[in-house]
Write a structure and sequence with these properties.
α1 crosses α6. This protein has nine helices and twelve strands. By secondary structure, the chain is an alpha+beta fold.
Amino acid sequence: MRMDSCIRLYMKENKFADPTMRRVHKRGMQKRASKMAGTKFRGVIQLESHMEVTLVCCLEIDPRVLSLRTQPCTISLTSGRVFRDKNALEAHLGRSGRKNPIYTPDFEVLLNDGTKSLLDAKHSAHIEKKPEYLLYPELLQSFGLSLLMVTEELLQGPLYYNARLLAPWVGKKCPAQVFEKLSDVGEDSSSYRDLHLHHGLSQGEICMALLNGLLKFDITASRLRQASELEANNGCTRFLEVLKF
């Protein structure tokens, strides 16, 4: 059975989405922006790369994350002051603001403990060209801001597939029949194939069982396949918390 991801990508503007602080792609660039719908943000958001799409999927499936915003603000790297966008910064600082070093994070997330964190998906090749990116988390921390830099080491491994597979099922209620079928499995681990062929669980039902913590699987270690072993679980969803907030 083919296990395709069902992420919904859109290629038209959406008036209900939060505005971004800068254009996702400047005129003349050949690469088109991906646009994605989800449960933890308004409307359809536009994303610059496959890494950003995967990161949003990780935020979607992470039970700690209540909501997210893309390109939420522009930050002055000299003062730490946060502005709505670059235009607001320049309006406040005048013409000198154009020379002011600034930073626009990819995302801001609100966690269920009430804290907020900024996130940036950066490929290591970009960091090599501009190594000062590595200083940003500590610099922003000195301003009272939290920044998590995520690279392809996490986002282009097995998580690239697994997060995209699970994300479309976030927020969907797990049917009672899934609980009944899993009760027949017992506490032993079972392969994906066994759960599907012998216990009658569909791909969507297995995904919902994982998101609800009825089953668990190391989503960063290997890609979910027919032979993957899934462990019975007691409702704990810590295995979905792959980002180090």
